[in-house]
């Protein structure tokens, strides 16, 4: 997978991916409607910190999950960098990574679990929206 160099020009776009249909839809929405030729895309996925004994295996799984997205970006000539974050809170890690990498846009899917589930469990997209006042967030939800 070809990654970007430290010298990047253009807008930095963080795309959060978890292997779900919704995150794939968000990626496809970026390609169809949001991409600029000089974008640098951060392909971001998270693995749970609590699974320390499985980190190596999970890292290989996450790399394999990101590969088709990187391949597609390479096909259309978009620079990218895959990032696997280790965290208990993916939303927090996405926000911090976007800020640290000076992202100009965050693109992510939403599973649309609804108000009750968001209140009880927490929603990654809801967290990101409410903690990134300086970075636009595009949340893509695929129709049924």
From TrEMBL:
Pfam families: Usp. CDD domains: USP_At3g01520-like. SUPFAM superfamilies: Adenine nucleotide alpha hydrolases-like (SSF52402). Residues 11-141 form the UspA domain. InterPro entries: Rossmann-like_a/b/a_fold (IPR014729), Universal_stress_UspA (IPR006015), UspA (IPR006016). It comes from the Eukaryota. Signal peptide: none annotated. This is UspA domain-containing protein. It comes from Batillaria attramentaria. The lineage of its organism: Eukaryota, Metazoa, Spiralia, Lophotrochozoa, Mollusca.
